[in-house]
Amino acid sequence: MLKEGSHIKGDRVIWMVVILLSLLSLLAVYSSTGTLAYKYQEGNTLYYMAKHLVILAFGLGLMYLAHRIKYTYYSKIFQIVLWIAIPLLVITFIFGKDINEARRALPLPFGLTFQASDLAKLTLIMYLARELTRKQEIPQSFKSLFVPVMLPVLVICGLILPSNLSTALMIFITSLILMFIGRIKVKYLLSMVGLAIGGFLLFVAIMMLLPKERQGRLETWKSRIEKFIGGDSKEEDQVLQSKIAVASGGILGKMPGNSSQRNFLSHPYSDFIYAIILEEYGLIGGAFVVLLYLILLFRAVRIVTKIPKSFGAFLTIGVVFSLVFQAFIHMGVAVDLLPVTGQPLPLVSMGGTSIWFTSISIGIILSVSKELGKGIPDKPIPETTESYA
Question: How many CB atoms lie within 10 A of CB 228?
Fold first, then answer.
């Protein structure tokens, strides 16, 4: 913990991880946007770095504000936000910006976009943490769990699914892990998985009956899976370029600013930024990034084992698992261990809402960590209580 009286509190190791990832992000974004700068900004290579610096600074501001708020207050706040996130997902699905046959984001000023799925993910974790805390002392049945726990997960994942399969799967798996930790019986979790699989197969069947031009992302999903399992002859070009970047980096890398594959990768500053890190900083640099996320996970687990309140434990493990899971999916794609998903590297890839919601998420973990050592007795949320405070 930081020393008493400091305005910045919480786990100092997590703060250090955030600072290191932010510095790495600035270097990686500056290096990976060179081609973009010459294409759209008349060679002004500082433009995207400056823009990213502003986004990062705002994100750190959000993190600071989030960590100053007592974490129990988030329970009530995000019960309201849940009813905002779901309509936003519907609006995005209908009116969102169409990129590669997917409506994932709403346009914002200054060339930014808002991804409602980022808000929905964090909101759902908050909601589940509260509901699981409430139900620790209540007898379980499928009927008592379906509407308050399972249905919101299925609805949110179902709304995200048509435009972003990987994000829907990530949120669903995170929710399952959180419910398992929350001692939901395995038979009910398997029932939920069965409902999800049935719903997905029904969705695919309906899409296949539509004309090809109206099948959305279905052909993209099929193509990526076939190319992933089909061997080198069927690889996507961006996967091949990513593997070249990884191989050419070697042990020590080419040093910052010397990437050549940034000129060939389609999104080296977001979807494949880890490949650029491996190319410029080598295996050592890549391993260091993995270590930072593992440290974040370890420190969060430490908080979970020490925090005396169930809500704080569920909240922390849900948020950190979501972030680290996303990070490892991104890195798995970059080294061709997973099919292409388009997931950014948390707090490193260039972006707007992704960085901001990642910052808020880490701020919430830091808010929970402030409570360590206060000796607050554990007390589940009563059924009639509207907020956990």
Answer: 18
23 C-beta neighbours (distance < 10 Å), count: 11
Q: 99 near 219, Cβ under 8 Å?
A: no
Confirm if 4 and 249 have CB atoms less than 8 A apart: no
Rounded CA-CA distance 28/272 in Å is 11
CA separation (Å) from 130 to 40, 205, 239, 243, 360?
Answer: 46, 35, 40, 43, 18
Rounded Cα–Cα distance for residues 143 and 138 (Å): 13
Q: What single-letter DSSP state applies at residue 254?
A: S
CB-based contact 362:18 (threshold 8 Å): yes
Q: What is the pLDDT of residue 6?
A: 57
Task: Report the Cα–Cα distance between both ends of the chain, in Å, rounded.
Answer: 23
User: What is the SS3 string spanning 167-222?
Assistant: HHHHHHHHHHHHHHHCCCCHHHHHHHHHHHHHHHHHHHHHHHHCCHHHCCCHHHHH
Is the pLDDT at 380 greater than 80? The verdict is: no
List % helix, strand, coil for the chain (3-state, nearest 5).
70, 5, 30
**What pLDDT, in 10s, does the model give residues 60-85?**
999 999 999 999 888 888 878 888 99
pLDDT at 235: 53
d(CA 120, CA 83): 10
Condensed to tens digits (0 to 9), the pLDDT of residues 225-259 reads: 777 776 554 456 788 888 899 999 889 989 988 88
Helices (H) and strands (E) in the chain, counts: 14, 3
- The count of C-alpha atoms lying within 13 angstroms of the C-alpha of 4, restricted to the half-sphere facing its C-beta, is 4
> Rounded to 10 degrees, what is the CA torsion of 94, 95, 97, 102?
10
In tens, the pLDDT along 313-369 reads 999 999 999 999 999 999 999 998 888 888 899 999 998 888 999 999 999 999 999
Return all residues near 162 (Cβ < 8 A) that are at least 6 apart.
93, 102, 203, 216, 217
